Amino acid sequence: MSYIGVQPNNIKQNIGVYTPSEILQLEKDGNWGGSLELIEEQTVTSTTATLDFTSIQENRYDVHLLQYKGFIPENDGVRLVLRFYENGVLETASVYQIASQIMRVTGTFSEAKSTGNAHIRVGTNMRNDFTSASDNGYIYIYNAGNSSKYTFATVQTTGIYYGDNKGSMEFGGGVLPQASLVNGFQLYGHSSGGIENIETKLYGVKQI
Amino acid sequence: MSNLRLINETTVTSSVSTVSVTDIFSADFDIYKIVGNFTCSGGSDASLQFINSSGSVISASSYDWAMLIMKGETSFVEYKNTGQTNMTALFHGTEQGSSNTIYAFNPFNSSAYSFVLGQTSGKSGSNLRTYKNIGVLKQTASMTGFKLTFDVNATSGSVRTYGLGVS
After folding, report:
1. Per-residue pLDDT for A3 more than 50?
2. Who's near A103: CB < 8 A, 6+ residues apart?
3. Which of B74, B75, B127 sits opposite A97 (nearest CB)?
4. Which of A62, A114, A141 has the CB atom closest to B72's CB atom?
């Protein structure tokens, strides 16, 4: 298996052949293939209330990466938010905790925080404007499949704030402070409007 | 095939105050992603120090860092310091696990400083704590690993190091 160690910087393609046993060993060691493993892609191009991810392979991954781009809400002022399914049941109660820093190119920075929120804050409040505005970002979600741990998330997003049509960026995190098995994620528009457009990719971050 | 490559996974299965991960930074990558998830009784922060190619932990007063602590229940707080012996609170652990994603830039490059960016989500008591960190080791030397030191022992968990490839 002469390619371990230099494989990332190979300058030639198909320069060797691995045997099945070598592949199995490389997979076991975590050295076979990339480490962001695509679980699911979902795209919305007409208004929908919610976007569910219900096959997240929580038994296989303890860290998930959910990337999104081009979020446009149904109505001005709607923001993308995240909720979790616990054993198939969507947690909608005000039990999530959040803390995010909001940075806008106009005005002072501000804090968004709560110890009793009905969702985890993801993006900025957006305009229903396909020509000049969209929200984009990524979310890391930890411990979803571990029923003895809380499910944590960290978030970073950038978009155009609907109020002044200027740039806005947020970073922060959230937690569902309940030791439970999370086996699904839901994105939806908060409040008073659905998702009119979004492209998403859900990855599992490889572990051994 | 994604350009993120798993290099090392180090697990914690018993109570430890430190975790050292060695021989992971190399000329193969300039940027590394480090993902940690630790269980600590009572909640704990963990500082980071780099380890050089001789296996020595860099404990000189050469670290600068800054962080924003975002709290679920009250106002956010800034912390910053220069000339320190470690990068404080880059990782966090709680009884219910935690989430830590760190990026390290240029650690193996002997002509550049080693920089880090971090984002963490954890808890203090029953309240959410989210950290956003930056830090730098102001030494032009080649680093090949890192050491985490916990305020309160970690009892389980893992830290995985990935290289960000260029194809």
Report:
1. no
2. A109, A168, A169, A170
3. B127
4. A114
Q: Are B92 and B122 in contact (CB under 8 A)?
A: yes
**What is the complex's ipTM, to 2 decimals?**
0.86
Q: How many residues does chain A have?
A: 208
Q: What is the DSSP secondary-structure string of A54-104?
A: ----TTT-SEEEEEEEEEEESSTTBEEEEEEEETTEE--SS-EEEEEEEEE
- Measured distance CA(B106)–CA(B12) in Å, rounded: 27
Report pLDDT digits (tens) over B130-144. Answer: 999 999 999 999 999
Summarize pLDDT for A174-199 with one digit per residue, the tens.
999 999 999 999 999 998 899 999 99
Supply the pLDDT for residue A1: 45
Beta bridge partners of A141: A64, A153
For a pLDDT cut of 90, what percent of chain A falls above it?
70
Distance from CA of B60 to the nearest CA of A (A): 31
Q: Do A99 and B71 touch (CB under 8 A)?
A: yes
Q: Which three-class secondary structure state does DSSP give residue B79?
A: strand
Q: In angstroms, rounded to a whole number, what is the distance separating the alpha carbons of residues B123 and B71?
A: 9
Least confident of A61-70, A126-135, B2-11, B56-65: A126-135
Domains of chain A: residue spans and CATH: 1-32 (no CATH), 34-205 (2.60.120)
What domains can you pick out in chain B, each with its CATH number?
4-164 (2.60.120)
